UniProtKB/TrEMBL annotation:
This is Helix-turn-helix transcriptional regulator. One of its GO terms (molecular function) is DNA binding. Residues 30-66 form the HTH cro/C1-type domain. InterPro entries: Cro/C1-type_HTH, HTH-type_regulator_Rgg, Lambda_DNA-bd_dom_sf, TPR-like_helical_dom_sf.
């Protein structure tokens, strides 16, 4: 996207917002009335300083300004990113394939974009995870992304986001290093807008990762934090999903509780149906039935050996 072209007529958008809020030129503090009038009449792109002065007076963020400027729509790039964020997991093959195609088409039309290229890599890794039924699918491009992330002294939110979507493709030692740095960065960003949802989802994914590796102690440690964080942030679906992972761990570790755990899992399944999350409900029910079969087979094998 040509940023200069996108910002064309941004002064008219700011004027539209000002008038919509019934504000006069003289109501805008911190900028000369004639300067503001000239910006609006000539439709010039304001300096960065003047843009933020005007936006602050209008009680509006830069992102919301650009959203309004783009006719109350996300940009094409933002739409792709938003679609990726809505992907529930690596099994959503059709969604991943669509995103992969959208990214390729976007870059063919607009040129190379590093952020979208990284998303393309992650999308392909997800599809590989689903195909091979294993987490550790890191390829040379994934290690290139890892090197770029590790080379940065400071991580922005987007760096954290990328790391949170790729960590489970690497061996446990590398994954643990990424997890620890994300958690450290999250502490720095603890007051950032909507960080709670990201934090909860990340912790749940970490717990699931270690659970699948059979590292139940580490998984339980993280998943308990995910449950607590989800509860504090009122993120109900992440809370329920994290509780499910905890029940899976305990089903492995505490045979005497299995009957009670089965009842709790059924309660989760019914709750998700009530919340109109049928797909997630079906998936968790399927996962738990597979877990029961796996443990039954494993215990029968151990009994036979004895």
């Amino acid at each position: 996207m040509n940023n200069k072209h996108f910002l064309k007529h941004i002064s008219k958008t700011l004027q539209k917002i000002r008038k919509g809020k019934q504000l006069k030129l003289t109501d805008i503090q911190g900028i000369n009335k004639s300067t503001l009038a000239n910006l609006e009449s000539s439709d010039r792109i304001p300096s960065l300083e003047n843009f933020f002065i005007i936006a602050n007076n209008l009680d509006i963020t830069a992102n919301e300004t650009f959203f309004i400027h783009n006719h109350y729509q996300l940009t094409e790039k933002e739409q792709i990113i938003n679609s990726f964020k809505k992907v529930p997991n690596s099994t959503a093959t059709e969604q991943l394939l669509q995103i992969k195609n959208d990214i390729k088409q976007y870059m063919t039309k607009n040129g190379f974009d590093q952020y979208l290229d990284d998303l393309l890599l992650i999308t392909e890794c997800y599809m590989e995870i689903n195909s091979r039924e294993t987490f550790m699918v890191a390829n040379p491009k994934a290690y290139e992304l890892l090197d770029r992330l590790n080379a940065k002294k400071i991580w922005t939110y987007q760096d954290m986001y990328m790391a949170s979507k790729i960590f489970f493709c690497f061996p446990p030692e590398t994954a643990e290093e990424l997890i620890n740095r994300i958690l450290s960065s999250l502490f720095t960003y603890r007051d950032f807008e909507n960080i709670g949802r990201f934090h909860c989802t990340f912790l749940q994914n970490c717990g699931h990762y270690f659970y699948e590796l059979g590292q139940y102690r580490r998984a339980k440690e993280i998943i308990l934090e995910a449950i607590d964080t989800s509860n504090k942030n009122s993120i109900i679906i992440t809370y329920i999903s994290s509780k499910f992972i905890l029940l899976e761990i305990e089903y492995h570790e505490i045979p005497s509780k299995r009957e009670k755990i089965e009842e709790e899992v059924q309660f989760i399944v019914e709750t998700l149906k009530y919340l109109q999350r049928a797909n997630l409900s079906t998936q968790l029910e399927k996962d738990f039935q597979e877990l029961k079969k796996k443990i039954k087979k494993q215990e029968a094998k151990e009994l036979k050996i004895k």
